[in-house]
Design brief:
Number of domains: 2
Strand order of the largest sheet: 6-7-8-10-11-12-13-16
Shape: rod-shaped
Number of strands: 16
CATH architecture of the largest domain: Beta Barrel
Helix content: 10-25%
Strand content: over 45%
Structural class: alpha+beta
CATH topology of the largest domain: Porin
Largest sheet: 8 strands, antiparallel, barrel
Radius of gyration: 42 Å
Length: 347
């Protein structure tokens, strides 16, 4: 988390500091013993990444104190000074901040650090301490410091305009209403040929993301003709159904598989045109048929799909076409209706 915090801090200040290089970089004095060169290298790299000018300095042997560190910073015209002192548990970090007039002393324990990770961790903690000290410049009553903070430091601490977080992805909602339209065929193996229909469906009242209600109507457009020596029988067959519809793919996927089941009403109209001396009759029949339906759709846009479906069912009663007393054809045991079309949906 410390590394993430520092990375965010670096990203926040990198742009204004890049502009400040031309006008002079603020200086920081770094004091570290030779045996802690690895830590010093890490700290120097972090400071230079922030476009500070790092000056190495040496201190006389003896207990660390504030005054010599302040004098080193003052002598080198630096805004701050950092000193690393070995301790029994790790290292002591001294930070003298001439802009706030504060001195920070912190002991960093490194006994649980990995062999090659201690230097990096200590460097990150030093940067956190320095940042915390600089943040006091924006306190309601800034502490009186020895020097005024350079413009670069003010720019460093200035809050950057927060980027608007990306809009949270709203979960896909199932369509509340879907209208489907396209051509279809109607056929049955009883002897009557296929006929052409205009198929339209309305899928509404979706109860969940997978299940909803569906209604459809298939209007006869191209009739089917049944030929015999007695004449010609023309049939027009329409369907009207209501049922349930289920989706086996989440809404928003390119491909969408649907299945449905329900009950349909079948309207059959037969018109006979006799040959020679025969008499022709016309008759309209009405029956019911349970149905099953399956389809596959592909999304062209989020609200428009092209699809292919097939509907199959069995009539409760068996319609029969007779020519002069003989059975010429039957229909509906079973029947099939493949269709192509497009559906438009609204949420």
């Amino acid at each position: 988390m410390r590394a993430a915090s520092l990375c965010a801090f670096l990203a926040m200040i990198s742009f204004p500091l890049a502009e400040a290089r031309a006008s002079g970089e603020p200086r920081i004095v770094l004091v570290a013993p030779a045996k802690d060169e690895g830590i010093a290298v890490r700290i120097r790299a972090e400071l230079e990444a922030l476009h500070f000018e790092v000056l190495d300095a040496e201190m006389e042997a003896g207990p660390p104190a504030r005054e010599p560190l302040e004098e080193a910073a003052r002598k080198n015209d630096a805004v701050a000074a950092v000193r690393i002192v070995p301790s029994s548990a790790g290292v002591e970090v001294w930070i003298v901040d001439r802009m706030t007039g504060k001195t920070v002393l912190r002991e960093l324990v490194a006994e649980h650090e990995p062999p090659h990770g201690g230097s990096a961790t200590i460097a990150l903690r030093v940067m956190e301490l320095l940042r915390a000290s600089l943040m006091e410049l924006d306190a309601p009553r800034p502490p009186p410091g020895e020097v005024a903070p350079p413009p670069v430091i003010r720019e460093l601490l200035a809050p950057r305009p927060a980027e608007a977080p990306p809009a949270a992805a709203r979960p896909d909602k199932p369509p509340l209403l879907t209208l489907e339209l396209g051509p279809s065929m109607l056929m049955s193996p009883g002897g009557i040929g296929p006929s052409g229909l205009l198929h339209t469906s309305l899928h509404i009242l979706r109860a969940s993301e997978r299940i909803g209600m569906s209604a459809f109507v298939s209007i006869p457009v191209v009739p089917a003709n049944l030929l015999g020596p007695e004449g010609v029988a023309t049939s027009r067959i329409g369907l009207l159904g209501v049922g349930f519809r289920g989706a086996f793919a989440p809404h928003g996927a390119a491909w969408n598989v649907n299945v449905g089941a329900g009950l349909s009403a079948v309207l059959l109209h037969f018109e006979g045109r006799p040959a020679r001396s025969y008499a022709g009759t016309s008759e309209t029949l009405f029956t019911f048929a349970p149905y099953l339906r399956a389809g596959l759709g592909y999304a062209v846009t989020p609200h428009l799909r092209i699809r292919a479906d097939v509907l199959t069912g069995v009539t409760v009663q068996r319609p029969v076409v007779q020519f002069v007393g003989r059975v010429a054809a039957t229909w509906g045991l079973p029947f099939f209706s493949p269709s192509l079309g497009a559906d438009l949906s609204w949420n």
